[in-house]
């Protein structure tokens, strides 16, 4: 692999910096708000159902999450929830949009080692403004040749990215924490992919079977990729 790779793409959330734990904290706070209507675990299930129903409309990110929380308030309460509950949901979402950026261990050192040897790219899902904010506040922007904030991460989305980069699949390596979004589509189009597990994963991104593929690597941490490339 090391002789072929020219372009390395990184997922952002929970690969470069902390993200999902913040969402889970927000969800816990939201479920507590509605415990007079339903038990907290049932509120969580209702919220997830709303998110899945609306994914094709809102895509990924905090703003879609906020809209789904508001819709869940209305449905769970049969329209009887006071407006103050909606105000509180908006507050939860706005706090989520202002969380500090906490880089994951080894990220900056790894990017420093790769810079100049490979074309480095961010390929991430999420809300455009929020992801741009996080990237700016992370201090990592200067490492990257290109930033791609994607509405989804299906085969066609990666093919579009590779076309834009003028990169063949066999010269492309994707690193990320989601087997479903960062790994499988890239392998399916002929690229290389490295999975870096994160201790918390959103239910929608979970994947529960063992993956074996000649272009696949399982890493314990981001800096392990250097051993495969050098």
Automatic annotation (TrEMBL):
Record keywords: Hydrolase
CDD domains xref list: HAD-like
Top-level taxon of origin: Bacteria
Record's protein name: HAD family hydrolase
InterPro entries: HAD-like_sf (IPR036412), HAD_sf (IPR023214), PGP-like_dom2 (IPR023198), S-2-haloacid_dehalogenase (IPR051540)
Protein species of origin: Chryseobacterium piperi
MF (Gene Ontology): hydrolase activity
């Amino acid at each position: 692999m090391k002789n072929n790779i020219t372009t390395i793409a990184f997922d952002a959330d929970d690969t470069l910096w902390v993200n999902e734990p913040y969402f889970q904290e927000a969800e816990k706070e939201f479920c507590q708000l509605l415990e007079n209507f339903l038990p907290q675990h049932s509120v969580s299930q209702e919220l997830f159902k709303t998110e899945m129903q609306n994914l094709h409309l809102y895509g990924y990110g905090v703003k879609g999450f906020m809209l789904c929380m508001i819709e869940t308030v209305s449905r769970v309460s049969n329209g009887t929830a006071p407006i103050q509950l909606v105000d509180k949901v908006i507050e939860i979402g706005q706090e989520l949009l202002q969380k500090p950026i906490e880089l994951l261990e080894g990220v900056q050192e790894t990017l420093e080692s790769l810079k100049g040897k490979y074309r480095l790219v961010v390929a991430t899902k999420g809300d455009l403004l929020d992801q741009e904010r996080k990237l700016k506040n992370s201090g990592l922007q200067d490492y990257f040749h290109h930033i791609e904030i994607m509405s989804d991460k299906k085969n066609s989305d990666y093919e579009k990215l590779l076309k834009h980069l003028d990169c063949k699949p066999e010269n492309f390596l994707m690193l990320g924490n989601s087997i479903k979004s960062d790994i499988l589509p890239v392998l399916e189009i002929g690229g290389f992919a490295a999975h870096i597990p994160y201790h918390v994963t959103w239910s929608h991104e979970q994947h529960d079977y063992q993956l074996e593929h000649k272009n696949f690597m399982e890493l314990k941490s981001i800096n392990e990729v250097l051993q495969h490339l050098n």
